[in-house]
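Review the following:
>
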Amino acid sequence: MIPDDRALDDAVAHYREHGWARLGKLADDATIARLRARADAIMLGEVTYPGLFFQHDSESGRYEDLEYGKGWKGPSLAYRKVEKLELDPLFWDWIASDVFRRVAARVYPNADVTLYRAFLMNKHAGGGSNLPWHQDGGDFWGLDREPTLQLWTALDDAPVGGGCVEVAPGTHAAGLATPLGGVVPEDKLERLDAEALALPLPAVAGEVLLIHNHVWHRSGRSRTGHARRALSVCYMDGATTCRRRKRAPRTFVRVFAASERAC
């Protein structure tokens, strides 16, 4: 069911206070089946686009053992991450869907909305890898302002023990734990007792979560014997620019125009 304006207002208010919110099951089974099939086809090399980014999972299932900079390693359903899914028409239709426009207009009012990234997060049927407590942003992202909005769509059921997202509610209010962003240091986790705060957010296929970039979040391995695929999309204020200088600054795709109405 597509949420009405009041439901969206309530969800965005919850996201602002707690760092996360549920939008409910927005994608029907047919849509999710198409997106799952397309995700697999991309990982198997049956559908290709120039510029796709791939990261294969570690054999050990440990985040610390991941390899970087290897890219495409041949057909495999064990890629941990596939980025730049906005290049694919099926994924683009979902990324640019009207309900997401209405959410983004509430978070970035009176602004164009651009895309930082749209990517598959995959925990393959063998379990995939854990993802430790982290925040999305900071100097590593190289932006002149911090994005705050992610929309996370479950492409498979993501139960407790099946790779669901966990959050530490309210932690976004303090901003970044380190200027660099990324993995939250152990001493800060202990100081706040993140384990006591951990809140699992199980989701069914087609369900959508709002996640604030700075809320501490993580996910474990899937122990169900089934893949747990999810689409994570980070939307930004359209005025955001890339600060990097060693290479040409990144440009970002506009998803929604400020002239489009929020309702």
